[in-house]
TrEMBL record:
Cellular component aspect of the GO annotation: cytoplasm
Keyword Nuclease tagged: no
Source organism (scientific name): Frigidibacter albus
GO MF, one annotated term: oxidoreductase activity
Species classification: Bacteria, Pseudomonadati, Pseudomonadota, Alphaproteobacteria, Rhodobacterales
Coiled-coil residue windows: none
Classification via InterPro entries: FAD-dep_OxRdtase (IPR006076), FAD/NAD-bd_sf (IPR036188)
Protein name as catalogued: FAD-dependent oxidoreductase
Any Pfam family the entry gives: DAO
Annotated FAD dependent oxidoreductase domain residues: 39-405
Claim: Oxidoreductase is one of the keywords in the record: yes
Keywords noted in UniProt: Oxidoreductase
Length: 450
């Protein structure tokens, strides 16, 4: 199979995350021999597992999930755990230009519904994954960025009926949001932090409990149309199904299906987690807020305090864009850059060692928006992918919604998600273009605080 990055990025031996130990689940064994199902799902992340759960429990279908490694091995078990708005790389103006005011409102309603969907799922399945209060903080990285947040708040209220609460620079300290690189904030009321691995593994258990089969260590290496459906080949067996959902997102091979090829751009994001910080250490930085937080840079940083451990100290999670290669040297450089940015933004914690650091793949599309729907020209084949930086909520609901499409039930998907993404103009130059975009964005974002 042709992959976008070097083979190491797709190897189950690729380093796992801080979350790997938070929800140990027995491994799912591989598919062996011949099997059949009504629906096959490729990929056991939030999208694939939400679809499998809805299909098996909600619609009584016979479902089988094939996962190259183990449930949650992809982005769903290694992300920052921000269950928040987002999912496209387009601002409101761009969505309005494509789909009108109503299209933009529909897209926002989807994002809100996605958060509610995850919250309800955690409760219904008794998944103990919630990690903090509702809401998020967007921190301005410059005075000009705060002015832009102020200007944007009115437009936000006019379009979506709610504006964020603006906090000027001078009031950041009393909100526990102080730092040398922050010049004001916009507090949003939606979303909540969670343990991503507990969520995805809880989901896998619910899927198994609903009667669906999950096979781990079963990469689909070939997908071909056969009489009555599709045949999925893995190294140790094959599965035939009438319908197939491709939910491999940033990890799906480039040549799994011709229509998909060149329409996605997998991008690395990287995270570090510090050793537990004492209450005094947290206070010394002035950044004590339990809110999920991120800054206004194009190449944004995202960060949050993790819940206190038994010693009373809580670790700090800090993430940003990853590298352009999975080679060991490039990965080491990525993690060193990550640490440098962390120390620049939170200088009082320079002495707090990194306990774990890792990277994983998110997925952009040629249209800068996700897609949930049938694969054009391939009857019975569906896809849900391209959540950009924010798929905890959006991919979860996308999975549940694509299940409705698969059984022919009506959905309330916004036009933004049902418009097939265009192919990147010169797919073979995607990595080069990404390098150029990172350089341009870094210049626009300006220097880190010194
Ligand atoms: C480091 C990082 C931090 C992030 N932080 C956040 C965050 O805080 N909040 C947020 O909303 N989003 C975040 N994201 C994005 C979010 O994690 C993803 O959008 C979301 O998990 C995508 O879910 P998914 O099910 O579509 O894909 P994935 O979780 O990536 O799952 C795809 C699965 O498909 C499997 N697969 C692929 N090809 C095959 C094949 N041929 N055969 C069998 N299996 C296959 C893979 O092994 C993988 O397990 C982050 C992403 C990363 C990488």
């Amino acid at each position: 199979m042709r992959q976008f990055y070097e083979a190491a990025a797709y190897d189950p031996a690729w380093p796992g995350s801080h979350w790997a130990g938070t929800a140990p689940l027995p491994a799912f064994g591989p598919l062996q021999g011949e099997a059949r199902a009504q629906v096959a799902v490729i990929g056991a992340g939030y999208a694939g597992l939400n679809a499998a759960l809805a299909l098996a429990r909600g619609h009584g279908m016979d479902v089988a999930v094939l996962e190259a490694a183990q449930p949650g091995w992809g982005a769903s078990g290694r992300n920052g755990g921000f269950c928040c708005l987002g999912g496209a790389k387009l601002d409101d103006a761009a969505v309005v230009a494509r789909h009108g005011m109503q299209g933009a409102r529909d897209w926002r309603a989807y994002q809100r519904r996605a958060i509610t969907h995850v919250a309800a799922l955690l409760e219904a399945e008794e998944i103990d994954a919630r990690q903090g209060p509702q809401g998020e903080a967007l921190l301005a990285h410059s005075p000009a960025a705060f002015a832009a947040l102020q200007a944007g708040a009115e437009a936000e209220a006019a379009l979506h009926g709610a504006a964020p609460r603006l906090i000027p620079a001078g009031a950041l300290a009393e909100q526990g949001l102080a730092g040398p690189g922050f010049f004001g904030a916009a507090l949003g009321a939606e979303g909540f932090p969670l343990d991503p691995m507990r969520y995805v593994q809880g989901l896998a258990q619910a899927v198994s409990g609903a009667g669906a089969r999950i096979w781990g260590q079963s990469p689909v290496t070939r997908l071909e149309e056969v009489a009555g459906g599709w045949r999925l080949t893995t190294p140790s067996g094959s599965l035939t199904a009438a319908k197939v959902l491709i939910a491999g997102n940033g990890y799906a091979p480039e040549d799994l299906q011709p229509w998909l090829s060149g329409r996605t751009l997998p991008v690395f994001s990287a995270i570090l987690v510090t050793r537990p910080l004492t209450a005094e250490e947290r206070a010394a930085q002035g950044f004590t807020s339990p809110l999920m937080s991120y800054d206004s840079r194009h190449l944004l940083h995202y960060f949050r305090h993790l819940p206190a451990d038994s010693s009373g100290g809580g670790r700090f999670l800090f993430g940003m864009r990853g590298g352009l290669s999975a080679r060991p040297k490039a990965e080491a450089e990525t993690l060193a850059r990550l640490r440098k940015h962390f120390e620049a933004l939170f200088p009082a914690w320079r002495h707090a060692q990194t306990e774990t650091a890792w990277s994983g793949l998110a997925c952009l599309t040629g249209s800068l928006a996700p897609y949930v729907g049938p694969v054009p020209g391939a009857p019975g084949l569906f896809a849900a992918f391209g959540w950009h930086g924010n798929g905890v909520a959006a991919a979860s609901l996308g999975g549940a919604e694509v299940a409705r499409l698969i059984v022919g039930a009506p959905t309330t998907l916004p036009a933004l998600l049902t418009t097939p993404p265009r192919r990147f103009p010169l797919p073979s130059l995607r990595r080069l273009a990404l390098r150029a975009a990172y350089t341009a964005y870094a210049l626009r974002d300006g220097p880190l605080p010194r």
